[in-house]
Structure of LacI family transcriptional regulator:
Amino acid sequence: MNRQAPTLEDVAREAGVSRATVSRVVNGVRNVDPAIQDLVRLAIERTGYAPNRAARSLVTRRTGTVALVVSGAGDTSEEEQNAFAARVFADPFFGRVVGGVVGFLRPRSMHPVLMFAESPEARQEVVRYLRQGNADGALVVSTHPDDPLPALLAEAGLPAVLFARPVRPVALSHVDLAHWDGGRLAAERLLARGCRKVATVSGPWAVAASQERLAGFRDTMARGGHPYVPVAEGGFTLDSGVAAMTTLLAQHPDVEGVFAANDLMAQGVCQVLRERGRRVPEDVAVVGFDDSSVAATCRPPLTSVRQPVEDMAAAMARLLDEHVRGLRTDPVAVLFEPELVVRESA
Amino acid sequence: MNRQAPTLEDVAREAGVSRATVSRVVNGVRNVDPAIQDLVRLAIERTGYAPNRAARSLVTRRTGTVALVVSGAGDTSEEEQNAFAARVFADPFFGRVVGGVVGFLRPRSMHPVLMFAESPEARQEVVRYLRQGNADGALVVSTHPDDPLPALLAEAGLPAVLFARPVRPVALSHVDLAHWDGGRLAAERLLARGCRKVATVSGPWAVAASQERLAGFRDTMARGGHPYVPVAEGGFTLDSGVAAMTTLLAQHPDVEGVFAANDLMAQGVCQVLRERGRRVPEDVAVVGFDDSSVAATCRPPLTSVRQPVEDMAAAMARLLDEHVRGLRTDPVAVLFEPELVVRESA
DNA sequence: GGGGGCCGGGAGAGCGCTCTATGCCCCCGG
DNA sequence: CCGGGGGCATAGAGCGCTCTCCCGGCCCCC
């Protein structure tokens, strides 16, 4: 690539018009004589012109880029930083988020830049990145309830949208699921199957979503005549599901139905049950949460409460776009409804 | 954010020096009087200055951004496009690639923008994106051997580095694994365990890596006195591993060792074996490939041929950086050595 | 037939930064 | 005491684009 990239000036000269006219054609604004439009388009074709985005965004103050930030908790050690990305994507959830975000951005010729904010320095880097005008705003997916990044962004007045409602209120828009209803759906399914003895593996206490799923589940079970439901806390990982179910089974060997707060843990639950000689769903029915890819590949395939992650991620991108363009100024919360997907496990 | 972001000019005024001096301090070049440096730094602090990247890259013709492209095959239908991202990240492999890339980029204040090129339009978009100067170059991970993107990039003279050697030679640098040696390591392990009857689940024929892993495995088995090794072709997915193993087991019920060309398929292999009443590794030893996260979470944990994906990804980023900065002009191939990680499955 | 509005196009001023050319000042040698 | 040189800062010219004026011509209406 020795030859310089053609500029607006070159195209203008080629077409025999002014820079401004070419710019108008490129951006499709104002009325330009159709004949001249063709002339310009031809010149663009001939010169192989591609508008320089740096120059454009220098004046428009827009970049067409958004930061997609996966934000961790406090202070991840230096060594763990490299593994953070791999760990994050080990959960099929994030692939779906990326898919949803890209689905919205692509038709608009926008692009996501991937950032990880699992340490104080990394968080500062995110803020700096946005302040420098590298991206128009941030889509933040927190893996930890105490994530300080949202507050940092709000404080700096940077456009951002969160996945899930933050524990501490922050002046940012977010999307979320009606977790309580998700818990309800799981309970209704187990009740409908006639399960008498029911237990649940919840997510981490500190996570609001865990609490709500649990509340929805318990309230509904109570209404169905089962006021007491044993709970074991998990950490949304397969291993934690195994551990929680092992505990539950020791205390309640006669369990007939289990609700796990995500599919990964439900998979662990199934493993433990099978190893202990219980058949799923004949002896014990299992309901998962998320309807992620593991729900389908699990043995047996999991009945799961579907979280429309792609739609939620797309909505995040849409909200951010509206904030960036000034179409929306006040923070807003968009709530999605879960749905029960019945497979074999319950 | 109503107040305008401070500019170099503002800082210069605040510090009582010229724009150029502030620029020198910010970029740490040339000799600037230490006293004045402090003065400037103080002014930067006070004004909360952050250099505008668009303006900078307009003159430096560098962006500090690289495109991380996951490139598919031919023409994915419109509906599938959204799911492509999710499918891609369902393979733990990509999470590791992202981790390796970010590990290299971050210390240099560079960032990856995620792109998917699974349709002709999407490929054009990648080329356009780079030609517009949105990113300095591309890191390309192809999921399909016939991927036309590398040729497109080479033709346009855009800096790019590939993961894995392309089938059709292309004037681009790439990193790759010594796949043949990987196959050899798997064979040696099964031979050392005394497996007599051995079979293998290969990757797709069209993929060069599959061929080489298979060749290394077969050649080594032959040298060990087993000239005939049954093969079933898989597609690097869990389902395809299940299907392939089902076929193999039907034809060779007395199999004692299985080499699967990646961990996902090895997991499928283990599932089938367990369902058919075979114990792993007591009855049948299983060796996987990649040493991905599923290798550790699989039951039993998989003995696997480790592919240093993070290192390879980091090397891609480093090569791209060298190409972009003109430190390297001719394409180069960097080869990595696999390593056997012994767990329980073999 | 003349004036005002409107439409299509051009000129030029920046956007915020880098970097070259230039100038100032001080120190040193003759 | 003067000329020369080197360190350190400044001035200013762009980088490629958008966008606000502004101007010329045409149409329409009175």
Notes: Residues 65-177+310-337 of chain B form a domain with the Rossmann fold fold (CATH 3.40.50.2300). The mean pLDDT of chain B is 91. The CA atoms of residues 203 and 234 of chain B lie 5 Å apart.
